[in-house]
C-alpha cells in the first residue's frame, strides 16, 4: 500500500524556497498548491497542521465540514480522512507534516501530554487570538531557522523540543474546548453512536448491532439519530463505508478486490454495485477520475 506522502505530489511542495524539511521527519511549507491534492478524500497516515494567518480554507474531516478562518490552527490527525473544499484567494499561512516516528517521540514522556495532543481528534479547529497568532508564527520562524542549520548535530532534537513547546503553548486550547463542552443526553448518545460507526463500519452495517452496543432498541436509536442529524443509521454507516472506499481508491494501490475484502463485502461484484449505487460511478471509474 502506498503511503499518503507518496500519494500527494510533494515534489512541487519541496521545490520552492519556502519549504524546509529534516529528512522525512518534518516538513514545513507555505505553498497552498498542495490543497488540490485533497480534492478527493485522502486518508492520512501522518498528522497535518495548518496555521491560517489570513483568509480561509474550507475542508472536511471524516465527513464533518470545517471553515478555517484566520487566525486559526487546524490539525488533521493520523488515520483521519481529509478532503479540501476551497481556499480564499487571500489565504496565507503555513503547513507542517511530521512522520509517525517524530510524532511518537513527541508523545513519549509525561502522561499529561496525551490529553493535549489527543483532544485535537474531536476538536481539530481552534480560533487564535492576535497574540496567539504572533506566538505560533514565531515558533514557525524559529523552526525554519533551526532546520536550515544543517551543520548542527542537535538540529533534530532542537526541532522536536520547539514543536513540543509550540503545542504546549497552544495545545491547551484544544483541550480546553473539550473540557468546557456541555452536551445533552441526546448529543452524548449521538457522539457515542458516531464513534461506534467509526470503529465498526467495516464489518457491522445493521441497526441492531449499534442499538445493542448503546443498550437501546433499534426503533429508539433510529428515531434518535434521525431527529438529531436528519440522517438514518444506515445513511451514517453508508457514508463512512463510501468515504473509506474513496480514500482507499485514491490513496492506495490496493486493487478493487482487496478494497472489497478490507470492507468485508461478500464479493467484488457486490461491492461494485454498492459503490455505484451510492457514489454514482463504479470503483474503477472513480479511481480514474480527476
Quick summary of this structure?
The protein has 290 residues and is α+β, with helices and mostly antiparallel strands. It has helices spanning 4-7, 10-15, 100-107, 113-122, 130-147, 155-180, 185-200, 207-213, 218-229, 233-251, 256-262, 268-279, 283-288; strands at 20-22, 26-29, 42-43, 48-54, 56-61, 64-69, 72-76, 81-87, 92-98, 125-127.
Q: If you had to describe this structure to a student in words, what would you say it looks like?
A:
This protein has helices spanning 4-7, 10-15, 100-107, 113-122, 130-147, 155-180, 185-200, 207-213, 218-229, 233-251, 256-262, 268-279, 283-288; strands spanning 20-22, 26-29, 42-43, 48-54, 56-61, 64-69, 72-76, 81-87, 92-98, 125-127. It is an alpha+beta fold. The chain has two domains: 4-180, Regulatory protein AraC (Jelly Rolls), CATH 2.60.120.280; 185-288, Homeodomain-like (Arc Repressor Mutant, subunit A), CATH 1.10.10. It has a six-stranded antiparallel β-sheet. Helix 4 crosses helix 6 and helix 5 (130-147) packs antiparallel against helix 6. The radius of gyration is 20 Å and the shape is globular. The model is unreliable at 1-13 (pLDDT under 50).
